[in-house]
Structure formats: structure tokens, C-alpha cells
Write a structure and sequence with these properties.
Layout (H helix, E strand, L loop, with lengths): L3 E2 L3 E3 L40 H8 L27 H17 L16 H14 L8 E3 H13 L7 H7 L1 E11 L2 H10 L20 H7 L6 E10 L4 E10 L6 E4 H6 L7
Antiparallel strand pairs: 1-4, 2-4, 3-7, 4-6, 5-6
Length: 275
């Protein structure tokens, strides 16, 4: 199936809101920003302050790929029929991720032993954190109620998760980013966000090589959030022919809220080879 991705959202002291718009679904929480229809079906647009990607590349050790990396092995047919947790689907998708990581000189991804039994949102959270820690970046410490709820709304409506101002104030968030995809589960979502997000991919914020939306989902995952507290939210919703997967990344200097699932729990089950 064709992956569908809206434009990645990010805002904070360094970057402006990254705006998504669609013909079938609008951007929640975008204020008075007008929608722009590009073509029928899920579409997107993205805008950022000049220098956003330059800042990202200067402050992270994880450069964007020069081009999309074809999935080897191909996993789409194995993961079809909304069954992302079968051993065959997990094995093939993980093998494709590891193939792409090898090209980037990143070690193989080690999932927690209970990965197949984790709910979709927890899978999405764990995989994104593994992409971070395996490149020397701090993990998000866990999933929290408000970001989870925002992500659930986004996944239900097939759009990017965006924190409204009141939620940002309540959580003490200074920088946040949001990803969405219609895909084949958490590992497939990670593959397209991380390794197939450039020109020629299904990232419709990257119709041309020079567009700032290119690799925006990857940048949200690997952004060098330098605030003290990193929390996340995630949600997965099974639609008719795909799994809607949304993740919110939120960073601030306040006290962490109560966490519903944590990175330490993932480590306790062997994530990243932890014993």
C-alpha cells in the first residue's frame, strides 16, 4: 500500500509552526492558518523559519540521508491486512530498518522482548527512542496523558498532533513536534519517517528536493531537544486499509507529569540490548 504522511509539525524558540493542510482532513490546533488543497486525498504543506534545517544539522550527529533508502527486504505484502505484530512482519520490517541503519553506520535495532505484545502507541514510542539513543541522543522519558490524548485525536482524524497553547502551558512545553502516517504499524511508520522521507517519497511536504518539508518527520524524531524534560504521546488507530499512527514530541524544563509508559520499562524488557 502507499504510505501517507502529512507534514511534520515543530515549534519552539528556534523554529516556527510547521503547518499541515489537507483536502480530506484539516490541521487541528493551527489557529487561523488557512488550509491549502494540493490535490485530492491526504495532502500536506510545511513551512519553517529560514535556517531550521541548518540548526538541526549543526546540533545533531544524525545527518539526513542523501536520498531515500529502498526497503530491503520489502515488507509491505507481509505486513498487509492490518497485522503488524506477526513474527514475519516484525522480522522483515526490522531487517529493512537494520539495512538502512547499516548504510548510516548505526548498529542494529534491538527491540524489547515483549515488543509484539505492546500496544501500538508504546511500540511507536519505543522505536522512536531507539532511533535516538542509538545515535547518542537522549531518549524521551515516557508517554504522558495529555500528549497521548492529542495524538489519539490526530490518529483518529489522520492528521498531525499539535499541542494547543493551554496544553503547552500546563505541561511547561517549550518545543514540540508531531508526526503522522497512514501505514502498516509502528516499525513501518518508523521506516518511512526515518529512511524514506525525502524527495520521491510519499512525504507530500517534499514534492521537490529543495522543499523544507523534506525529512521533516525524521528531524522531529532526531531533533536535538535541549530542554530538561522530554515527554511524548502516541496513538494508533486501525482504519479501513491502514493503521493511522501519530506521535507527539514535547520538551520543556518543568517537572515531568505522571507517565503511562516509560523508557525504563522498555529497557527492563531488553530494549537496546539492556540487561
Amino acid at each position: 500500500m502507499a504510505d501517507m504522511r502529512r507534514g511534520a509539525q515543530r515549534r519552539g524558540a528556534v523554529v516556527a509552526c510547521l503547518l499541515a493542510a489537507g483536502a480530506t482532513a484539516g490541521l487541528a490546533g493551527a489557529g487561523a492558518v488557512p488550509h491549502s488543497t494540493v490535490r485530492p486525498g491526504p495532502v500536506l504543506a510545511r513551512a519553517a523559519l529560514p535556517g531550521t534545517q541548518a540548526y538541526y544539522l549543526k546540533h545533531t550527529a544524525a545527518e539526513n540521508p542523501r536520498r531515500n533508502i529502498p526497503a530491503r527486504p520489502a515488507y509491505a505484502s507481509t505486513c498487509a491486512n492490518l497485522k503488524p505484530d506477526t513474527p514475519a512482519c516484525i522480522a522483515k520490517t526490522l531487517a529493512a530498518i537494520d539495512h538502512a541503519r547499516k548504510i548510516e553506520h548505526v548498529k542494529k535495532m534491538i527491540l524489547p522482548r515483549n515488543f509484539a505484545s505492546l500496544p501500538g502507541p508504546e511500540q511507536t514510542f519505543v522505536v522512536s527512542d531507539l532511533e535516538r539513543v542509538d545515535r547518542g541522543l537522549r531518549p524521551f522519558i515516557g508517554l504522558a496523558r495529555i500528549p497521548d490524548a492529542v495524538s489519539k485525536t490526530a490518529a483518529t482524524s489522520d492528521t498531525d498532533p499539535v499541542l494547543i497553547a493551554a496544553a503547552r502551558r500546563e505541561l511547561g512545553v517549550e518545543t514540540d513536534g508531531g508526526n503522522w502516517t497512514g501505514n502498516l504499524g509502528a516499525l513501518a511508520a518508523d521506516y518511512t519517517w526515518m529512511y524514506d522521507d525525502g524527495p520521491g517519497s510519499d512525504n507530500l511536504a517534499c514534492l521537490k528536493a529543495a522543499e523544507v518539508g523534506c525529512w521533516g518527520h525524521r528531524e522531529n524524531i532526531l531533533w536535538p531537544y535541549d530542554e530538561k524534560t522530554l515527554i511524548s504521546g502516541a496513538a494508533t488507530v486501525k482504519q479501513t486499509s491502514f493503521i493511522s499512527d501519530a506521535q507527539l514530541f514535547a520538551a520543556g524544563d518543568g517537572k515531568p507529569p505522571k507517565l503511562l509508559y516509560t523508557w525504563h520499562q522498555a529497557l527492563a524488557h531488553g530494549a537496546d540490548g539492556h540487561h
